[in-house]
Structure formats: structure tokens, C-alpha cells
Amino acid sequence: MTSGATRTHLVWDWNGTLLDDTHAVIQATNAAFAEVELAPITLEQYREMYTIPIPRFYERFLGRLPTEAEWERMDGIFHRYYAEQRVGCGLTAGVEELLHQWQRAGRSQSLLSMYGHEQLVPVVRGYGIEPRFVRVEGRTGPSGGSKALHMERHFEALAGVGGIAPENSVVIGDALDDAVAAAHVGARAVLYTGGSHSRSSLEAVLMQHLDSLGEAVALAETFSA
């Protein structure tokens, strides 16, 4: 970045981005599907069909929206199975160095996830990367919805951290909802193809997408206010 340019702030997504947990998500999804007698799906099917809010994703396979009772059961089963499988997941290759380099260069970064806040914070701490972020924030309230309002609140909190503003920030995530949330607050977004969406599904909506987190950071580094 040129001297005097506004330093770009990164807002990282967690599941499927910093945490390489897509296979755990598939197993948990299939456990939830079994509750309503749906056949298991593959990673490829998941990446082609995934959408937010999650009940709409389930609708694509069920042929209708799940009832409230079905959704509560499926969501509970998903989270129980995911918690069991998550312990075997590692960080995406190269993440620790990327976070370290960004911080060492004097740039700020935060983490915003739709994983429940009470579960997220100790998990991030357990991977040893919590000190890299000026803020670590997970979902509060019901699961299954969009990240947009959470992103809004995230930046309200970041406003008091060195004047971090959406227009000087880049959201790095793996889902179209990350891009929607970024646009909601006026931030840029770069999507990573190694998580919840296939490259073809991202290309279909012409989103800025890259195949590695290193490439995503390199692109974010070129952005300035």
C-alpha cells in the first residue's frame, strides 16, 4: 500500500474459511437429513446447493420448507454432530502465517462467525490465534439466518477500535452470504472457493472469488480508501 493510504481491515469468516471444517459440516448435515428420511449428500452436492437461510437450503432437498418442529430437530442434530466432528478439524493450510503477517505489518483484522458466540470464542482460543484479532464475535440469537445484521453490529463495535470503518474493510469468507453481509454495510468482499460454495456457483453470480486464502489476502492488500 502506498504511504498515507488508509490501511485495509480484514473481517474473516470462520467455518469453511479459517477453519477447514467442510467435511464435518457435511457429516452433520447428513445426520440432520436422516431425521426427515432424506438421502445423504456429497460434498459436491452441498457446494452446488448451499444457500442461506439454512431452511431454504433444506427445502432444496426436501421439496418444501421444513416445519418448525422439523427445523428445530434438524438444527439440534446438526449442531450436536458438528460439535463431535469439529474436534478433528484443523485450520485451513497457511492460515496461521497469513494472520501473523497481517498483524505484524500493523494491519487490523477481526473475526465474525455465524457459529454461536459462546462456542466460538473458546474454540478460536484453542487454536492459538485469538491474539491476532481485535475482535472475535460469533452469532447471538437463533441459528440459520443471514450474517448481515451481525455484520452491522460488528462494525458498530469496531468503530471504537482505531476508527475501523466498513468502507476501508474487506470481508473474506466462503459463502455468498458473506458477500451479502459485506454489501449491507458497504464493505468489499472476497470469497474463497474451498468452503461451502463451488467455483461454478460463485462464478454464476460474478462474485470476486479466489482459490486460496493467500490470494484473497493479497487482493485485499491492494484495496485502499
Report on this model:
By secondary structure, the protein is of the alpha/beta class. 46% of the residues lie in helices and 14% in strands. α1 packs antiparallel against α4. It is globular. The termini are close together.
How is this fold's topology laid out?
Elements (H helix, E strand, L loop, with lengths): L8 E4 L6 E2 L1 H14 L7 H7 L4 H9 L5 H19 L3 E2 L3 H10 L4 E8 H10 L9 E4 L8 H11 L10 E5 L2 H10 L2 E5 L6 H5 L5 E2 L2 H9 L4
Parallel strand pairs: 1-4, 1-6, 4-5, 6-7, 7-8
Antiparallel strand pairs: 2-3
Helix pairs in contact: 1-4, 7-8
Mean of all residue-level pLDDT scores: 91
Number of helices: 10
Largest sheet: spatial strand order: 5-4-1-6-7-8
Radius of gyration: 17 Å
Order of helices and strands: EEHHHHEHEHEHEHEHEH
Structural class: alpha/beta
- Helix coverage percent of residues? 40-55%
Number of strands: 8
Molecular shape: globular
Beta-strand content bin: 5-15%
Offer a few descriptive terms.
225 residues; alpha/beta; 6-stranded parallel β-sheet; two-stranded antiparallel sheet; 10 helices; globular
Concise summary:
α1 packs antiparallel against α4 (68-86) and α7 (148-158) packs across α8 (176-185). Helix content is 46%, strand content 14%.
